[in-house]
Design brief:
Layout: H1 2-31, H2 35-103, E1 117-123, E2 130-139, E3 145-147, E4 152-156, E5 166-169, E6 178-180, E7 185-193, E8 212-216, E9 224-227, H3 234-237, E10 238-241
Parallel strand pairs: 5-10
Antiparallel strand pairs: 1-2, 2-7, 3-6, 4-8, 7-10, 8-9
Keywords: Signal
Signal peptide: 1-27
Region (Disordered): 34-128, 197-217
């Protein structure tokens, strides 16, 4: 019976020992790391690090892009401002160019004054008691001047005293502005009659023959004298004249 107890004890000891070894092995297996898990974790960490690095690089690239965009925007704003300034300057120049053009237009030419004019009377073709002459004025000055209108006339005797003179203005052609450059001329036509009329002095067919004529240019008050060698002027010194042309 004792051996039977010994065998039973030995079995229990063996069983207990087996249990302890199994626990130890299991404990050891629990403490030992899984190589596959370690590799997977390392790869994950590596991927995470790589992803973080890529994200960081992308962020830096985005930052540079934004910075470049900001720089481009600033350059665009500066360029727009410069174009605006240039446009304003151009408009100012254009406006200044338009003012210069107006200022650069040919200035209004002054009237031809008596002091710069020289005159002459040229006999025209007579006919049926009618007489004609061409009164010519020449610009003796150094600059261009203008004539507009009709001459003033007064017949003079030998002593320079005025004779009866009746000047009428012929509307055909009418007056127009005539520009006279230095040494250029303009003329007006004179017409009178040598046929006596009821206005002539009693016993005399016509007025005494003038020896001169006083000429006053248009819009002037001063006059100059020309010789008159065209005979009598009947009808109380009636002369019709055209405008200068």
């Amino acid at each position: 019976m004792v051996p039977h107890r010994r065998n039973g004890l030995g079995f229990r000891v063996f069983a207990a020992t087996t249990t302890l070894l199994t626990g130890a092995l299991l404990a050891g297996c629990g403490q030992q790391a899984d190589p596959a898990n370690e590799l997977s974790g390392s790869a994950g960490e590596a991927m995470g690090t790589s992803g973080d690095s890529a994200a960081g690089a992308t962020g830096a690239s985005t930052s540079r892009t934004r910075t470049d965009d900001s720089a481009d925007g600033a350059r665009t704003d500066r360029s727009s401002a410069e174009r605006s300034t240039a446009s304003s300057t151009s408009e100012g120049r254009e406006s200044t160019g338009r003012t210069s053009t107006n200022a650069g237009q040919r200035p209004s030419t002054s009237r031809c004054h008596t002091g710069v004019l020289d005159g002459a009377l040229k006999r025209g073709s007579p006919g049926a008691g009618q007489r004609y002459a061409e009164l010519t004025l020449r610009n003796t000055g150094d600059s261009t001047c203008t004539l507009y209108g009709y001459p003033g006339l007064e017949l003079l005797d030998e002593s320079g005293a005025p004779l009866p003179t009746d000047v009428s203005r012929n509307a055909a052609p009418g007056p127009s502005t005539v520009r006279l450059a230095p040494d250029e001329t303009s003329s007006a036509r004179l017409h009178w009659s040598v046929v006596p009329s009821g206005t002539d002095p009693s016993g005399n067919p016509c007025e005494p023959a003038p020896s001169g004529v006083s000429v006053t240019p248009p819009d002037e008050t001063d006059s100059f004298r020309l010789d008159w060698n065209h005979g009598r002027v009947c009808g109380g010194g009636a002369i019709d004249v055209t405008a200068f042309r």
